[in-house]
Amino acid sequence: MPYTITLIPGDGIGEEISSAAKRVIEATGVKIEWDIQEAGLNAIEKYKDPLPQSVIDSIARTKVALKGPLTTPIGTGFRSVNVALRKEFELYSNLRPAKSFRGIKSRYENIDMVIVRENTEEFYSGIEHYVDAKRSAAETIGIVTRTGSERILRFAFEYARKYRRRKVTVVHKANILKYTSGLFLDIGRTISKDYPEIEMNDKIIDNMAMQMVINPHQFDVVVTTNLFGDILSDLASGLVGGLGVAPGANLGYDAAIFEAVHGSAPDIAGKKIANPSAIILASAMMLEHIGEKEAARRIENSVAKVIEVGAKVTKDLNAEHFVTTDEMADAIIENL
Ligand code: NAD
Predict the structure, then answer these.
(1) Measured by CB atoms within 10 angstroms of the end CB, which terminus of the chain is less buried, N or C?
(2) How confident is the model at residue 137 (pLDDT cuts 50, 70, 90)?
């Protein structure tokens, strides 16, 4: 029986990288029946709705989706479809690993950290408004709940236990945001007591940003609230070669959506130079999630090999000798 999985190709570079990922997954031999759904800019053009009900119905049915990036207008326009999907399916955990690849020239080697970002609360709740018609001020409300904090902190410690990680760092701003960040930190300290074999420490977000740049090897699993996690995961990807190699998973109780950390990259859309590795690595996370561990490992190893050899990589990884998105995917398929 094939798996049924929702595929949202996305916009910007979405089509280019998602079709590459689809080909790589199919080349592993895992049989998948794709339910292809449009969202974001493409859906507005076709259906006048960035998140048609059919997308929600599809994920509710399949429980698993592979998603290309979706553009969110800056400052005005419709609300983020990415955020809406995470809220709709209560995908409370955003798992974003950052791992060094041999062959990528970056400041550090042997980085292996995982950012666990709370994915549904705080400043992404979308509770904001202008105080008057003249827009003299704007207000946003960031709600951090005990339930929301407990489940993500528990997830981080359980993840550390399952994958034999040594340390969990709780990142916060409890010196200033004494209630919201304070609650998150308190709960982190309490939950850590159930995991005596795992070292727990905490860092204030500003110091954390500096420490990640100066000495990233001290970090293993990092757990934090929504906005900090979003920023730190881009920072982490910058330490290992950039957004082109950073995958992510949005996990809930019942459904999961896999995607790259990066966005729709309008600056390079249509040029066939986008690196497909991030969404291909997200596909490996997806295959692991559905129980196809061997196929997942084959994809990860193949991506690592192609990057290490460096002859068939995209422009972000080798600005002098580079291939197209599809050619890099072909190399990954050849090395499976
Ligand atoms: P971005 O991640 O799209 O791009 C940042 C930089 O990284 C750009 O220079 C881009 O060219 C480069 N880049 C990104 N992916 C790459 C790849 N695969 N290969 C090579 N280079 C790559 O961030 P942005 O420009 O700030 O955002 C563009 C749009 O994407 C916005 O509308 C934003 O809201 C949206 N976005 C969506 C998601 C998502 O779908 N989950 C995530 C982040 C941003």
Answers:
(1) N
(2) very high
